[in-house]
Amino acid sequence: MAAAAILVAALVGLSGASPMPSVDQLRLIAPDGRSWRIDGKSEAGKTDLRTVPGHNAFWFAWSAFHPGTQVWEGAPIREAKLVPDPGGRCTVPCDEILTGCPGRDCIPPLDAPKMVPANDPSASYLLDTDMVLGVRTEAGPRAYPHNVLWWHEIVNEKVGHESYAISFCPLTGSGLRFDRTAFVKGQTVRLGVSGLLYNSNLVMWDRETESLWSQMKLEAISGPKLKTASPLQGVFEMTWGAWKALHRNTLVLSEQTGFARNYRRYPYEDYRTDHTNTFRATNPRPDTQFKNKELVFGVIIGGEAKAYVWSRLSAKLGDAGVVSDEVGGVPIVVVFHRPSHLVHALDRRVGGKAQSLTLSPNAP
Prior knowledge:
Blueprint: E1 5-7, E2 27-29, E3 35-37, E4 54-58, H1 59-65, E5 70-71, E6 97-99, E7 115-117, E8 131-137, E9 140-145, H2 146-152, E10 154-159, E11 162-169, E12 174-179, E13 191-198, E14 201-206, E15 212-214, E16 219-222, E17 232-233, E18 236-239, H3 240-246, E19 251-253, E20 295-301, E21 304-309, H4 310-317, E22 320-327, E23 330-337, E24 342-347, E25 349-350, E26 353-354, E27 358-360
Parallel strand pairs: 5-21, 9-19
Antiparallel strand pairs: 1-22, 2-3, 2-27, 4-20, 6-13, 7-19, 8-9, 8-18, 10-11, 11-12, 12-17, 13-14, 14-15, 15-16, 20-21, 22-23, 23-24, 25-26
């Protein structure tokens, strides 16, 4: 694997003379002057930079699901060998798939999500500092707030010709997007919450085959689709304020879901900050080079994974910057903007040529 090159944005705000530029003011700049927004959208309608599959998660979960992988500016996660079920019923030890809540859809997914404009009264439950998972669709941008996903964990969505699922596991801090048309050939699956956990992580089920899908292991761990890979898609994760700044015409999940939930309240008390609480012990146990609840952004390309720990990005890049790297043979740029809680990866090839991108605070 090629070594990473650190490219730090020359932001005047670092000196204290000017405030940090907002996320919509930042541009990725190529040596020939071409520019893209921080989310890869091209200036002047040129080719966009493609989003690379990846997601955020707590460190304890990432290290348990991806032992032996590389860590940017850190030691590789320690190796561990997982012994699958000897009877071939599961790709993991069957007795480690444990009950989290009683029965299928004990946490009810949203199958008919109501989407509203950002200024709709039913979106007033959101603060600009709340986190959302964002998707750009053929019909425009859409945001799926953590606030709703804490209580429902899965949203089955259909927008025009696109059918996807947004899933978020509060116990592992992992938000992912899946193509619902690619789990079972010729079918569009409905994903639900199985009521089971593996390594404290959400285990989904599909209504069509009743297979069990580990969200972070990215495969069916039991059932008729055993060993089938989950069809992961790119998703953006950032604050609601940042998403609105980048996508002024966005729709967002309404708090009118049909369920009586308080979407203004985080239901897990101090779980996000208590490093001793991983709900259940994991196998393998977490790597100890970072604290359990530190956030990590993981990139997964062609079966190769690499982790970018937020605290290390902040220490090296300050409030904002980019890292040029290569994962799975693909040249990528990892974009970091701490005020927006944004870490994201883009394919930095344009016209088949890898670009050396820098981050500029100057909006054109």
